[in-house]
Specification:
The complex is a heterodimer of chains A (about 240) and B (about 300). Chain A has about 240 residues and is of the alpha/beta class. Chain A has a domain of about 160 residues: 2-enoyl-CoA Hydratase, Chain A, domain 1 (Alpha-Beta Complex), CATH 3.90.226.10. Chain A is about 45% helix and about 20% strand. In chain A, strand 2 and strand 3 form a beta hairpin. Chain B has about 300 residues and is of the alpha/beta class. Chain B has a seven-stranded mixed beta sheet, sandwiched between helices. The longest helix of chain B has 20 residues. At the A-B interface, helix 2, helix 3, helix 4, helix 5 and helix 6 of A face helix 2, helix 3, helix 4, helix 5 and helix 9 of B.
Amino acid sequence: MTLADILISLFPMGHVAEERDGLIFGRGTLPGGDPIHILGVVDQTALGVEGALALAGRVLEIAASANSDPILVVIDSASQRMSRRDELLGLSEYLAHLAKALLLAETSGHRTIGLLYGGSAAGAFIATALSTGMLAALPGAHPAVMDLASMARVTKLPIEVLTAKAETTPVFAPGLDNLAKTGAIHAIWDPARPLSDQLAELLTSPAGDDCRAQLGLDRGGRPKAAAIAARVIAEARRG
Amino acid sequence: MTALPSGLSWLEASARQRLAALLDPGSFAEFIGPEQRERSPHLRLFDLPEQFDDGMIVGRATLCRTPVLVAAQEGRFMGGAFGEVHGAKLTGLLRAAALLGRDVLILFDTGGVRLQEANAGELAISEIMRAIVDLRRAGNRVIGLIGGRAGCYGGGGLIAGCCSALIVSEQGRISVSGPEVIETNKGVEEFDSRDRALVWRTMGGKHRYLIGGADGYVADDPAAFRAATQSALGRSPGLDLSMLHAEHQRLTRRLARFGNARDGTDVWSTLGIADPDAIPGLADDDFRHLADACREVADDAR
């Protein structure tokens, strides 16, 4: 599905959106007539200091408003922009600023729903999709921490060996199904059904604590994370 | 508190040596210690050695008699990288701190996500960031200490960006894309990772302190980190809309002021430093004296 198709299926009552410099900003109308904010990264754009700052600025405007309109974050990005200039300016702070803005918006009453419909990777994935309260994805989305070729270079393992190992575990290889098994993605949507219905299902399910480690356990992608975190809490409270 | 030199290099020390030298003597009690042998369940697939603490040490302690929870990464094991168990120990510690109302110290020493368990590590970083935001919203501080050999790279840089205060030494580096990653993806013309002076000028402790990317600059000595940590425990913990607005102003100003700089020396010159080429060679006290007169500060905008 193209982004235009996706937005039409999400908002049969209409939406307005403007794309600039690989970012999107807009508003949609939910089936009940309520508004929802739209923002995100499009066209496989790498997220640099300017983009992260612009998105965070919009999120902070929304968070400061008196209403509790939800935010849909659509993502088809590359990784963070890899450049000497971005690092000189402190890209880590800009990406963390965006993540904090999204997390604060969620805790101050604006539901944040991520929709991964293309690529995303590394720091850009953390600062956008993984910083929403609930993350949905469409089939064909292709998130990655790092592509297998780069991983082969860093780990000094032949790509054939990595590909074979990827068959036995979801824990390291790129791909939507692997990320979903570790608990990163709450729901993979069915493009044959109206996306508006599937968005409504997420918006009506209660917002809550971070349950991704439990999802990863239930789906067999992260066998130990939930139990280790719980044991640290138990030992800390005992003392 | 006076900071008598301890004679130990923070850069060279192990994670356990750093904890012993930083905290009140005998006060540290570890959670899920190495005797429990909670190893990574994934490294054996790659025939890689495991470590009984998975490179992450967490526990409770006191610092100048203030109770804190503390985490330390061992940069000598898998480059201090975040895997499933490694990350979950820190997530659990931060959630425990929210329940107990404790401040948290994080001794970073990390290359980022552990690629052999990349998906679990990436997600762990996101869980840690969320837990830090929740903890700060509850009114507690998270202080990051950065001066290890592995630096603070990748997702570690994003976690650092969520802390309420950062203390850095000259050797500490904070960055998302490391020099090798930029060179591999964009070519040696964009970043020559073997040019160590370039690395320090772009992401090293002095540069980060000058642009307000760190709040304390200390010598490569646990006693100096201890004194600066005690001071940081007095900072405002809050993470709310007004703080994020202030941070937004701060980062907007940085981009406007330094966005055309090509090198660290251009940034330092814009700050008003008469001889920017001399910065890398300055001794710690001389540097701090010069920097404090002209640097950008974060204060309550982090």
